[in-house]
Amino acid sequence: MADRTDRTMIEFYGGLGVIGGSKIMISTPNARVLLDMGLDIPDGLDLFREPVRRRCGGELADYLNTGQAPELPGIYDPAQLPVQGPRADRSEALAVGDPRPTAIFLSHPHIDHDGMLGFVRAELSCHAHPETVELHRALAISGLGPVGRPVTLQPTPPGTAITVGDIVVEPIEVDHDVPGACGFLISTPDGRIGYTGDFNLHRNGGRRTSAFAERIRGVDALITETTLLSFDPLPAEPITEDEVLTVIGDRLAGPQLQLISAYERDVERAQAIIDLARQRGRTMIWPGQQATFLGLLGVRDVVTWDDSRRQRKAHQIAVANAIAAGTQPTTVGLAEVWDRPSDFLVQTDSADLPSLLDLPISVGTGWLHSQGEPLGPFMSTWQPFMDWLEHLGVEVVPAGSSGHAGPQALIEMVKQIAPGTVYPIHGFRPETAAHLLGAPQTEARTIVPAAGIRYPLR
Ligand SMILES: [Zn+2]
To answer: Which residues belong to any copy of the Metallo-beta-lactamase domain (predicted)?
Structure first.
């Protein structure tokens, strides 16, 4: 019989003091469940930032050798572990599979949650919402998917309880800014754990999130994202999608060409912007990869460039793949855009700044920033992008809203769930988050998790 202290354990392999990189292992002596497999976002210097190019096929080895991936036992594909380099001596131990049944559960398809799925051992099942599975298929065809081996996901509808040894995992939908977002209720022999994934209460009235909170009410431990507690001062509660569309709509009323960077994985907002542009007499034009991705997911009125605008190779390949998959994207040529600039809204390609020179940019052209790349000043691609916009006289217009819960919404959630213990992760300031989410605001005990520590559920 196992000792009480080595029964259900929680270990954190990412998301500590950083936004993203979530990887949480729940284990008993009989089973293991890994929640998310996000790409690590270094809290210090990111050695792989632009203009560094990752080495195709050797990404996991390079991440492990630089300490930018954690040593997850029995999870990695042995074929991708380093054979030389500073950490190669660890590969033998990492290559050994764990005898316990092990499964991975993906909360939602954002790179800081799914970016390392291509590094996983082939025999491990990875469960995801059916919409996430569809989205991953579209990512793969568009050349936008995770690196590593092709990802195979097990479609697992919300509400379906999956048994892994003596652990039961139930995915429950939450509101976020990508299709198929889920949190999880994990039942173990020692008690119940709730994991939020990423969530908010301001999209679609927060109905899914509220139902999730109700379903996991009273869990022994709650692992929650704390993205919007990362900043000092704390940000205001995020604006609603209607308010985002009002900002965009105002800008589309003008007589000039308008530019935008929206995040294509926010499929709902992408459709809303396309529809809004059409109502204002404009056609929204996407780069080939994004057009292919959105078209495969059934988004209406997706338009991309014809051959008159030279796009990067990746876009050309994606469009060819779309045609091979039986979807013929609608195209627009540069001449039409030069003839009638005010009839168009153009999604920018942050990896191809000189392509801005193709466009009829004039005084009054704005760049609507709506969660697309470059994401913000923390990205090395941000400043060059800003320099180009300034050079061309393009005004930057904030036109987005976070997919994460605002500070008040987070506190409300914890109150509603009333967990025994809260583990704040996925934020820059976990100590502040713990302070804000614990007593006296709520009745929960808080633990700021650290790497390399196994936390007993009891
Ligand atoms: Zn997310």
So the answer is: 20-251
